[in-house]
Design brief:
Helix content is 76%, strand content 0%. The protein is mostly helical. The longest helix has 26 residues, at 7-32. The chain crosses the membrane at residues 12-34, 46-65, 85-104, 111-129, 149-168, 180-197, 217-235, 242-263.
Length: 271
């Protein structure tokens, strides 16, 4: 599995998707909670921002310099990479600004009702553009629906695993979260198996899918097993178990993302 050479990108994409998923799932509980519980939920949003901060730090490591990130903004509207950075920065700013104002108790109720959905829309745009970045016509192993499914599944699985302990710690039952995670796991298993069969015979004039990811079956099975254990822990609806489930989900999705980067295959002779 040589996708680990893109470890900064693995961190960035997985953590950003997990953070966006959790933020989207928490929009309605935060907006609709009574005053005391709302303040508790607002103060507890910091792990989402921490994930985003670590993810963006990892992306800067990949670029090599913060100045390159600023240079990448030169083509907003024309380049998907520029759009990704712009949408990500906007989402981070809106989410961070909401949390900071709420923490200082300076967020007016009317503004908060507007700010939350705007931050959610920014998060959705960020996830959409991040997915589109990897739909490169010359990379057939990326330019397909499997990429879209896998990226959005990380949003669902990781977002659920992060949102669960944040909600349960303040007494919110959130009984739908374990069911949502289980549904996501079922779809992830179907996608992983179908992808393996679909790409098994894929080859170019210089390499093949089997040569790029010889451990695809083993690592995919490991990923799904980790997610299954996480689903069992979430089903118990305990905060401690949910934290462990989050760690297992992060590990599982990073394994899946490392496979994604490992299967990078460009069009070549005799494709």
């Amino acid at each position: 599995m040589n996708g680990l050479h893109e470890f900064p990108l693995i961190l960035f994409t997985v953590l950003a998707q997990v953070a966006a998923g959790a933020w989207l799932l928490l929009l309605f509980p935060v907006a609709g909670a009574f005053a005391d519980k709302q303040r508790q939920l607002q103060r507890g949003l910091w792990p989402i921002l921490l994930f985003l901060a670590i993810g963006f730090a990892a992306s800067i490591m990949h670029l090599g310099s913060p100045w390159r990130a600023f240079n990448s903004l030169n083509r907003v509207g024309q380049s998907m990479l520029s759009n990704e950075i712009a949408c990500g920065a906007l989402f981070f700013a809106l989410a961070g600004g909401y949390w900071l104002l709420a923490l200082m108790e300076k967020m007016p109720k009317g503004l908060g009702r507007l700010w939350l959905p705007l931050s959610g829309l920014a998060g959705l745009a960020f996830m959409y553009v991040m997915n589109r970045v990897y739909h490169i016509p010359t990379v057939p192993t990326w330019d397909n629906l499997f990429t879209t499914f896998n990226f959005y599944l990380t949003v669902v699985l990781g977002g659920t695993a992060l949102a669960a302990p944040l909600l349960w710690r303040v007494g919110d039952k959130a009984t739908l979260l374990p069911k949502l995670f289980l549904c996501g796991l079922g779809v992830a298993a179907i996608v992983a198996v179908y992808q393996g069969f679909e790409f098994a015979q894929l080859r170019t004039g210089v390499t093949s899918f089997a040569a790029l990811v010889p451990d695809y079956a083993y690592l995919t099975a490991l990923r799904l097993c980790l997610l299954a254990v996480a689903a069992c822990l979430l089903w118990r609806r305990k905060v401690g178990g949910a934290v462990v489930a989050l760690c297992l989900t992060l590990l599982a999705e990073m394994i899946g993302r490392s496979l994604f980067y490992a299967m990078h295959m460009t069009l070549g002779m005799a494709f």
